[in-house]
Amino acid sequence: MSESLSTDRDEPAESAEEPRPVRRQLPSFLVIGVLSTLLYLVLFVLLRPVTSSQAANLVALAASAVANTAANRRFTFGITGSRGALRHHLQGAVAFLIGLGLSSGALALLDVAVPHASRTVEVAGLVLANGLATVVRFVLAKVWVFRAH
Question: Do the beta carbons of residue 35 and residue 106 sit within 8 Å?
Answer without folding.
Answer: no
